[in-house]
Amino acid sequence: MTTLTAPAPTRTDGLRQTLLLAQWQLRRQSQYLPLMVVVQVFMAVATVVGYGLLVGDPDPVTALFLATGAPTITLITVGLVMVPQMVGQSRIEGSLDWMRTLPVPRIAFLLSDLLVWTLIALPGMALGVLAGVLRFDVDLSIAPWFLPATVLVSLTASAVGYAMATVLPPQLAMLLTQALVFIVLLFSPVSYPAERMPAWLQTAHEWLPIEPMAQLVRAGLAQHTFAMPTRSLVVLLVWAAASLAGAAVALRRRA
Amino acid sequence: MTGQDVLTVRGLRKRYRGRRGVQANDGIDLDVAAGQVVGLLGHNGAGKTTLVHQVVGLVRPDEGSITVTGLDAVAHPEHARRLVSIQAQANVPISGLTPRRAIELVGRIRGASPADVRRRATELLDALDLGAWADTPAEKVSGGVARLTAFAMTTVVPGRLVVLDEPTNDVDPVRRRLLWQQIRGLADAGHGVLLVTHNVREAERVVDHLAILDRGVVRAADTPAGLTARLRGTLTLEVDTVPGVPVRWHAAARDAAAGHLRATASIPSGAAAEVVRWAQDEVEAGRLERYALTPASLEDVYVQLVGEPADVTEEAPAA
Description:
The complex is a heterodimer. By secondary structure, chain A is mainly α. Chain A has one domain (33-252). Helix content of chain A is 76%, strand content 0%. Chain A is built from ten helices and no strands. Chain B is an alpha/beta fold. Chain B has two domains: 5-223, Rossmann fold (3-Layer(aba) Sandwich), CATH 3.40.50.300; 233-295. Chain B has helices at residues 48-55, 77-83, 99-109, 114-127, 143-155, 173-188, 200-206, 224-229, 272-284, 298-306; strands at residues 5-16, 22-33, 37-41, 63-68, 71-72, 84-87, 161-165, 192-197, 209-214, 217-222, 234-241, 254-259, 262-268, 288-295. A six-stranded mixed β-sheet of chain B has the order 6-7-8-3-9-10, with helices on both faces. In chain B, strands 2-1-4-5 form a four-stranded antiparallel β-sheet, covered by helices on one side. In chain B, a hairpin with a 2-residue loop joins strand 9 (209-214) and strand 10. The longest helix of chain B is centred in the middle third of the chain and has 16 residues, at 173-188. The chains are: A mainly alpha, B alpha/beta. The A-B interface holds A 1-7, 9, 13, 17, 20-21, 23-24, 27-31, 91, 93-95, 97-105, 254-255 and B 16, 53, 56-60, 77-78, 81-82, 84-86, 88, 90, 92-97, 101, 105-112, 116-117, 120, 139, 155-159, 182, 185-186, 188-189, 191, 317-319.
């Protein structure tokens, strides 16, 4: 019997392996992939329509807030809720441990997952925007950097979720995601202006990544009405870097 | 046939901290040479999985060294992972994929070309008689097929060291034989195989060398013949008993143990003729159903060394 031997590693191995891992993840989810996308779309549309019911007939500014907040809600829920749940599940079922025995750079696991989740989040985001435009009849002015900005938001949210799921015990991480949904939906300045919140909550959001995410998406969708404060961009980038590093360290950790 | 050591473990110790700290490995020495199948026997909680996880850097040893083809695996886990392929004790969930797709993807992740991987995957699927399930979604295949798929995923591009943790679990007897042939074939192709199992009887037939692990320590390590040598003067007498009739053993019988309608005892080989005559008389008198006299097996050695397997679950925390 002859067996295959692995060739010597090359520079592009990491990228090739990342894409192969992403293919593995996508195919493993393939059964539920359509359903996940449908749920995402539903969430985004429900945010727009549901808030619309809450506030009645909104004035143009409120309407624009709602319409441009919905895509952020979608991106954040995928990253902070679905990613930790999936990572937690793969830790519980043991597949993460086995995957970690493969000769793959630890960061490739993270990047492939982030790629998969970003792809899953995008359709819901697009339809969330469309639903907002149709429901509230708002005028968007989309910035050329809108797409890369959504990728940054999605990556940061996924990385925070990933770090949470790798550092905390799986059950705890999954429970925490449930609480996060409420915080993001109701107690974050995503679908309404920050001024409506109590002062202490406003201060907290100055340091959390949620408001900067909302601001970035909002400025990208309606650049004539909203601007992206530099401070928020810095906060967002720091969160992105810190959570990526946190997840990478957790993946490399040995028991 | 055997050559350079692919795995050398010396003085390996690992203690899991926490409220119920567990000394999983307590000074393990172990060698696997190229071309060898080395069996690592031990019941649940003996420290097998912890040992395996340390080889690929999922768990960090407290003390001791692990070298894979001369490379320090504790200092360079990422290099070690390139040299080692592992079949985990629990099946890797591959729902959403087919066995063929899973095998091919792992082969490509391990760096082989698509054409080579396709050829080798087909070869393995045929050799394990999995053709009928090769393209069936994994959620529809049986546990045995999933187990064999996991084996093929591990050996599609095998490392210099191949670690198989209970590869025969759930596999039907016919395919078990095919699997053993593949395992032997890996060694014959020059890979070192570390076979982790508690199936003593089956392991006996394929391994070149055996190590018996108990409570984190290697109690004995030798060839199967070497290990059973100490019991060479002993035979095992197995009898099927008649319901309600206790066995009145022959005077030469020692270490008698009784199960449901079945009992065993050890006898010195010198007393074999006498014992056979006694057993035949008992059968004719209707006090025994059947009897058999067999040479002492590895299982006997194992039980003698580690005692009856205690029913404990492995305390390896998720890494």
